[in-house]
Amino acid sequence: MKTNWWKKAVIYQIYPRSFQDSNGDGIGDLAGIISRLDYLKKLGIDAIWLSPVYQSPNDDNGYDISDYQKIGSEYGTMETMDLLISEANKRNIKIIMDLVVNHTSDEHPWFQSALKGPESPYYDFYVWRNQPNQIVSNFGGSAWEYVPQLDQYYLHLHSIKQPDLNWENKNMRQAIWDMMNFWLNKGIGGFRLDVIDLIGKEPDQEITKNGPRLHELLQEMNQKTFGHYDVVTVGETWGATPEIAQLYSGEERQELSMVFQFEQIGLDKQAGKRKWDLKKLDPQELHQVLSKWQIELAGKGWNSLFWNNHDLPRIISRWGDDQNFRILSGKMLAIYLHFMQGTPYIYQGEEIGMINHPVTDISEVDDIESRRMYQERLAAGYTNAELLDSINAKGRDNARHPMQWDSSSNAGFTTGTPWLPVGDATEINVADSLADPESLFYTYQKLIQLRKSEETIISGSYQVVETGNLQVLAYLRELNNDKILVVVNFSAEKQSYKLNFKPEVREWLITNYQEQISEDLKPYEAFAVRIK
Ligand code: GLC
Ligand code: CA
């Protein structure tokens, strides 16, 4: 029976390469994750979204899969994977697999066979054309790669080593359904569907996202696979509007549980440009966008709530203050987001306030997206300094540096040489966070608990509250006369504000200062109170 357990759940994302190494090769692995399950249990999360651990040549760190039913040797074996699922389940933690089915690796046997030409049964699993058109790859440059022996081009919306699958091909779809059922039968908790809004593409029309058959394909996927299980599904959909998100997540439509939408993520880039073209965030814009999603999906879909993932910079460095108010701004951001309606996602290290990891030279950068952008823009006349500024602000490596467990060498992540350098863990690490009752960790723990006890957070209505100050954001959640007021100061300065009602506090739920409402808010002050 379906229970929608995920409406009360908080999900934790693990980027396995950087979480915990168990054998000293410098790469995080499944045994490492198993050894940290008790930590995650203490945090209180319900499920883990595991970034890809399948066999992969790692051109895009596992998002280029060469065998969907094998575990990458650096991560362990299928036995370790089974053990992770059962050890997690013992602790009431579900494992959500990352499903990357817009493309495979070029080293996948399907693509290797496809390269033999139209007589291969796998040729039509991919998208071939005699001539390229204007479609560009999400990582920059043309999305078409020439194959001399076929005198044809294949489509790759990401790197050359990530050929796009042809979702028009029935046999291809069946092979994907079989693979998904293989995983569902292992007792996993669901799927996160990588760039899923691209599978309905119409390359000849130059339509890549939100293609005409997208929702039909998802309904078929639902029927053939996860629709028969009590699992969560979350689609990564960069092109979703609230209207589109209703199609994905409206319950009667039988597509997905929810999607990751990214409208707020684009608010600190220049309009019409790429994420590298930086602009300062306006907190009012953020409040408008998130409030719009709250209101438009209410009763018609379901939101996911997140600040971070493995593709985004660390939120405290991005929209908080990682120099002077690391903990206070981290708590403010957490409180502001976690009282909204939807399923919150916490990205590894967010709960201890990990920050960005600036570089001084392009040779220090691992991420394929940043490296491609650097070469492209250098050739176009940008300066080295400008490009490093962009990479330090937005580059994906920022979130991929190893998890900081303690202040020992390599932060307890590995006894060997880490695949990506470890940041400064003297102040930012799990051991110290656990020892300090005032740490960000316990704010997250509390927020997760509140989601279990406060039905108003799960199903209450949402209303924007005016504060008369552009830096002060507030909202009200309400269910059957239960009212929760959330007020946050999104700035490093003291701010005065005025509500058009006088809140009478019934109960303090959480704050990052004293339990006291005053006329001025201190830097990054944030609170949630039950009011009369
Ligand atoms: C998604 C992943 C990202 C990956 C891309 C291609 O955006 O989150 O890490 O590079 O898809 O698979
Ligand atoms: Ca390892």
TrEMBL record:
Domain Glycosyl hydrolase family 13 catalytic: 13-400
Taxonomic superkingdom: Bacteria
Pfam family, one: Alpha-amylase
CDD domains per UniProt: AmyAc_SI_OligoGlu_DGase
Stated family: Belongs to the glycosyl hydrolase 13 family.
Listed PANTHER family: ALPHA-AMYLASE FAMILY MEMBER, NEUTRAL AND BASIC AMINO ACID TRANSPORT PROTEIN RBAT
Protein name: Alpha-glucosidase
Organism: Enterococcus alishanensis
Lineage: Bacteria, Bacillati, Bacillota, Bacilli, Lactobacillales
